[in-house]
Specification:
The chain has 160 residues and is of the alpha+beta class. It has 2 domains: 54 residues; 95 residues, no CATH class. Helix content is 49%, strand content 21%. The protein has 8 helices and 5 strands; from the N terminus they run H-H-H-H-E-E-E-H-H-E-H-E-H. A 5-stranded antiparallel β-sheet has the order 4-3-2-1-5, with helices on both faces. The longest helix is centred in the first third of the chain and has 22 residues. The protein starts with 7 loop residues before the first helix and ends with a helix.
Length: 160
């Protein structure tokens, strides 16, 4: 298995897709029930194969990830041969949390200035050391979440 097996909670909304996957592999409903009951390790392998397909299709659609806490935000753009990152950290004591949507709407409207946050901006690039999709998967497992590509460019434009 390339990624990780989807959990029962993750599989539930994909039930129809999983049934189609079984059907495409000539596994009937009765066959699946027998496999689950009599060969649980084989059933787990099948779920693993399906999980890899789901992960692969999902990851190829994602272009950017973000990672944040109360004091920093990093946005990663997954380009053809490299990952580019832009971000900032907040140094001001008592600064609003970067988890709060209001913080970003206040920044966008001008009600809050980056200078008030004592923000330090940073940027970096890194060539892939593994497949693009696998590097993205590892970052998601470490807490990154998908975001719009425009988010990357929005943060980058603030650095000028």
């Amino acid at each position: 298995m390339k990624y990780r097996r989807l959990s029962p909670e993750e599989l539930e909304p994909l039930k129809e897709d999983f049934i189609q996957f079984l059907s495409a592999n000539t596994i009937t409903g009765d066959d699946w029930a027998k496999t689950k009951a009599n060969k649980p390790e084989e059933a787990q392998k099948i779920i693993g194969l399906f999980s890899d397909i789901v992960w692969e299709k999902s990851l190829e659609k994602i272009e950017s990830l973000e990672h944040r806490d109360d004091r920093y935000l990093k946005v990663f753009l997954f380009e053809e041969k490299k990952i580019s990152m832009v971000g900032f950290s907040v140094q001001a004591e008592g600064a609003p949390s970067l988890f709060e949507e209001k913080t970003f709407s206040d920044l966008a409207s001008g009600a809050l200035k980056f200078s008030e946050l004592e923000a330090d901006f940073f940027t970096s690039t890194k060539n892939y050391t593994k497949e693009r999709s696998y590097e993205m998967f590892e970052m998601m497992e470490a807490g990154c979440t998908p975001c719009e590509k425009s988010y990357f460019y929005g943060i980058k434009s603030l650095m000028k």
